[in-house]
Amino acid sequence: MAIRVAGALRVESKEPADASMQELERLNDRRALLKADHTRYLKQHPELTSILNDFLTEVLARKPDDVQAFARAHFSLRPIPGTVKGLRPLLIAGPSGVGKGTIIKRIFERFPDQLGFSVSHTTRKPRPGEVGGVHYHFSTVDGMKAAIGEGKFIEHAVVHGNYYGTSAEAVAQVSHAGKVCCLDIDIAGVKLVKQTALDPHYVFVAPPSFATLEARLRGRQTESEADILKRLSAAAAEMEYGAQPGAFDVVLVNDDLERAVDALCAQLRQWYPSLREAAAAAARGEGEGECTEEGGGGGGDT
Ligand SMILES: Nc1ncnc2c1ncn2[C@@H]1O[C@H](COP(=O)(O)OP(=O)(O)OP(=O)(O)O)[C@@H](O)[C@H]1O
């Protein structure tokens, strides 16, 4: 029998029980798909289990009356175990190929005793000349996933198909040595660091133009064409984020290298008394720290 309802033709089933069985099966199929999807996601993010376990441990230890307020505070600023309070790290970010590594090398040459590098973990293959434990801790995907699951990373991300991450231990090692810990991380990592209590000074290194960035990436001759294209396509969004007001304390345009390094040094002397003292001692001819007050000019758009 056919019934016309509000202009549409509805066919009434002779066997309503069959229809509801089919509906139930469809519902079950959907549930199974959803469950598989959730399981896949959870497997990709073992850190979720440790985050939630940490939270539950804290709640049970403190037994707060207002659990929601406690949760907001707990998740808004994740504490970093082992870091030294009062010695803020230096975070340097920017698109791949902009010159972060080059600039960091130069500021380390000027302040070898005051700056320390947080050695990141990565699953990418070493480039020629890169030394494990010095440039990166080169890790396997499984090893990295396990450490993430154990909550050992301040931030981690999959960038250009490889895992990268900063372990709390790497930062703690540097700050316990009394040095300013320098972090070279990608934008996804920056967003994660902002959710922690690490509280670094944020520097974004920007290229003078997109064409220059491309030329530097190609000129470095360390990536395949496919890899270069991946990095360039990520760069547009990264540069947009870097330009957002308040996203970084300083935007440093890496046009002329010397000027950019001088501008960054001038900024670092303002932020860190130990660098100011080293620079003053160097000016008196007593040691390293070659930045001069005049050096803070051009390259950086601070
Ligand atoms: N101011 C500059 N002028 C010209 N070339 C530069 C400048 N700064 C860096 N370079 C060159 O650009 C290339 C990329 O620099 P670098 O490897 O330091 O980039 P990066 O931001 O650390 O990249 P990644 O994030 O992929 O490691 C290098 O060949 C470097 O010598």
TrEMBL record:
GO terms for molecular function: ATP binding; GMP kinase activity. Residues 17-44 form a coiled coil. Residues 282-302 are annotated as: Disordered. The keyword Transport does not apply. Pfam families: Guanylate_kin, RIIa. GO terms for cellular component: cytosol. Residues 87-269 form the Guanylate kinase-like domain. Its EC number is 2.7.4.8. InterPro entries: cAMP_dep_PK_reg_su_I/II_a/b, DD_CATIP, GK/Ca_channel_bsu, Guanylate_kin-like_dom, Guanylate_kinase, P-loop_NTPase. Keywords: ATP-binding, Coiled coil, Kinase, Nucleotide-binding, Transferase. The keyword Cytoplasm does not apply. NCBIfam families: guanyl_kin (TIGR03263). Belongs to the guanylate kinase family. This is guanylate kinase.
